[in-house]
């Protein structure tokens, strides 16, 4: 009897623990964190092409039923998209190799908009995170970190979002938008064992970066990044469950992303 009681206790504790890790998805209110892909979709200034949606067929057929079909063409990186580790780290995961567990799980939103909106070249610091933890608790291992800079409100206005309305190679030196300090990225990986990082700007690195060190660090550790996120202002700081599924491009360095966040009703 003692053994049976002990076993039942272990099973109960195990079930309780699992229920905290795996939320009841039916009880969640889902928020779309994805900008639509269309003629307004923003791409890096020197991209040769943007999003093209071509009508191949649209209308009523001779037999009387409606039929439509379209073709698309777009760079891997632009709009709401995923950066796969191979993007900046040789031999790391391509889009199609990323484990699903790297793209789903618990998440937190860290609001850095006060500093970021006051300084277009702001780089998110370790202090931003530790200050957030003082109010919300220590970030658990394997958490997806979403940074709200406030720049999502500017999308898709290129000038306001990128810091310059220019396109082409001459626009690159004039990019001004916030990003994540490489020291912060290293700290999140070493001290918090994070799963992935996302934010509402064109890049994980700030606009004036020339070495994209945050990309190098994050992806060198085989972790993906999510860029150009939408609606982070609709999320609470904690108790979020994220599903981030990119187009499964074979050998892709990145891909258009449909990312959603579930919050408790």
Class computed from helices, strands and strand pairing: alpha/beta
Q: Quick one: biggest sheet?
A: 7 strands, mixed, barrel
Q: Please tell me what the overall shape is.
A: globular
The helix tally amounts to: 6
CATH superfamily: Putative cyclase
In the CATH hierarchy, the architecture is: 3-Layer(bba) Sandwich
Tell me the CATH topology: Glucose Oxidase, domain 1
Spatially, the strands of the biggest sheet line up as 4-10-9-7-5-11-12
* CA distance, first residue to last residue: 41 Å
Estimate the helix proportion, in percent: 10-25%
Report the average pLDDT across residues. Answer: 92
Note the run of SSEs as H and E.
Answer: HEEEEEHEHEHEHEHEEE
Q: How many whole angstroms does the radius of gyration measure?
A: 21 Å
Q: What fraction of the residues are assigned to beta strands by DSSP?
A: 25-35%
Taken together, the total number of domains comes to 1
Outline the secondary-structure elements:
Layout: H1 2-21, E1 28-32, E2 52-60, E3 66-73, E4 81-83, E5 104-111, H2 113-118, E6 123-124, H3 126-136, E7 144-148, H4 158-162, E8 179-180, H5 182-192, E9 196-199, H6 213-220, E10 225-227, E11 240-246, E12 254-264
Report on this model:
With 265 residues, the chain is an alpha/beta fold. It has one domain (28-264): Glucose Oxidase, domain 1 (3-Layer(bba) Sandwich). It is 23% helix and 25% strand. Strands 4-10-9-7-5-11-12 form a 7-stranded mixed beta barrel. A two-stranded antiparallel ribbon has the order 2-3. Strands 6-8 form a two-stranded parallel sheet. Helix 5 runs parallel beside helix 6. The model is unreliable at 1-21 (pLDDT under 50).
């Amino acid at each position: 009897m003692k053994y049976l009681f002990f076993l039942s206790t272990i099973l109960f504790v195990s079930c309780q623990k699992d229920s905290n890790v795996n939320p009841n998805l039916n009880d969640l209110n889902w928020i779309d964190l994805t900008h639509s892909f269309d003629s307004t979709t923003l791409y890096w200034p020197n991209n040769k092409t943007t999003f093209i949606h071509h009508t191949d067929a649209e209308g009523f057929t001779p037999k009387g039923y409606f039929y439509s079909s379209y073709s698309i063409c777009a760079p891997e990186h632009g709009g709401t998209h995923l950066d796969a580790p191979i993007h900046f780290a040789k031999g790391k995961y391509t889009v199609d190799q990323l484990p699903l567990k790297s793209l789903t799980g618990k998440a937190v939103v860290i609001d850095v908009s006060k500093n970021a909106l006051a300084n277009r070249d702001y780089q998110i610091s370790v202090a931003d995170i530790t200050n957030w933890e003082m109010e919300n608790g220590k970030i658990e291992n394997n958490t997806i970190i979403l940074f709200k800079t406030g720049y999502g409100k500017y999308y898709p206005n290129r000038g306001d979002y990128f810091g310059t309305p220019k396109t082409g190679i001459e626009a690159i030196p004039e990019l001004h938008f916030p990003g994540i300090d490489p020291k912060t990225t290293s700290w999140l990986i070493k001290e918090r064992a994070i799963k992935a990082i996302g934010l509402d700007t064109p890049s994980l690195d700030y606009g004036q970066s020339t070495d994209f060190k945050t990309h190098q660090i994050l992806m060198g550790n085989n972790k993906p990044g999510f860029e150009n996120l939408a609606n982070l202002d609709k999320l609470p700081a904690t108790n979020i469950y994220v599903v981030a599924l990119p187009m499964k491009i074979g050998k892709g360095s990145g891909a258009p992303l449909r990312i959603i966040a579930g919050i408790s009703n």
